[in-house]
Amino acid sequence: MYDFNYLERKAKDLIANGKAADAIKIYLFMADGDQSLDAGYLGERLGECYEKIGDLHAAKYWYGRAVEENPDVRLTSVAARQRLQKVSIEAFLGDATM
């Protein structure tokens, strides 16, 4: 069993050293099996990491999960979802019609 606080410090150190992709691995490990994502905290942290590495689709998803779990507290995630609202899959669809 790992200490949550230790893992959080380690992830923050990785982010501070420009290794957000490695921090993602820690946050995913912490979130595994946690349906609430620690009241949305881990979703928000994952969203921030994905945004740092430029994966805006994944960032939007994780920010959304954070808001789902705790909309009244995860105001950073609410703002991020608003900021990323134009991130879509349209560019990948071509001329496909439904």
Automatic annotation (TrEMBL):
InterPro entries: TPR-like_helical_dom_sf
Protein name, UniProt field: Tetratricopeptide (TPR) repeat protein
Organism: Rhizobium paknamense
